[in-house]
Design brief:
Layout lengths: L1 H23 L9 E3 L1 H11 L3 E11 L6 E11 L4 E9 L2 E8 L19
Antiparallel strand pairs: 1-5, 2-3, 3-4, 4-5
Length: 121
C-alpha cells in the first residue's frame, strides 16, 4: 500500500512538473502576417494564386493584450492544380490576414480504423 501511495505521489509531482515546463514555453508570437481589406486578400488568393476556399471554420485569435480573444473565421484556400494553399483569418468584414501559405498541398491518409464520435450539446 505504501508503494502504491508513493507511486501516486510521484506521478502527481511529475505531471505537475511537466505542466509547469509547458507553461514556461508558452508565449504569444509576434509573427508578421500580411493583412489587407477582405476584397484585396480574396482577389490575391483567388486571382493571382488561383486558390478557392476549401474549408472554413470558426476561429479564435488572441487580442493584443494576450488575455482576451476575438472571434474570427478561418479559411483554407487551395489550388488543386498547382497544390498551393493559403490560410486566411477573417478578422472582420473589412479585414483579413494571410496567416500561412505554401506548396505541396496534399490530403492526409485516412485512418486505418474508423472511430465513432458523438458530440454532446
Amino acid at each position: 500500500m505504501k508503494n502504491l501511495f508513493s507511486a501516486l505521489v510521484l506521478s502527481l509531482v511529475m505531471g505537475t512538473s511537466a505542466y509547469a515546463e509547458h507553461e514556461k514555453n508558452t508565449y504569444n508570437s509576434t509573427k508578421p502576417v500580411s493583412c489587407n481589406t477582405f476584397e484585396n486578400v480574396t482577389a490575391l488568393i483567388g486571382g493571382q494564386f488561383g486558390e478557392m476556399p476549401y474549408m472554413q471554420g470558426d476561429g479564435l485569435a488572441a487580442a493584443v493584450d494576450g488575455k482576451q480573444f476575438i472571434k474570427t473565421q478561418v479559411v483554407v484556400a487551395v489550388n488543386l492544380e498547382t497544390n498551393t494553399f493559403s490560410v486566411v483569418e477573417v478578422i472582420s468584414p473589412e479585414l483579413a490576414c494571410i496567416i500561412a501559405g505554401g506548396n505541396n498541398f496534399r490530403f492526409n491518409k485516412s485512418p486505418s480504423q474508423k472511430t465513432n464520435i458523438v458530440l454532446e450539446k
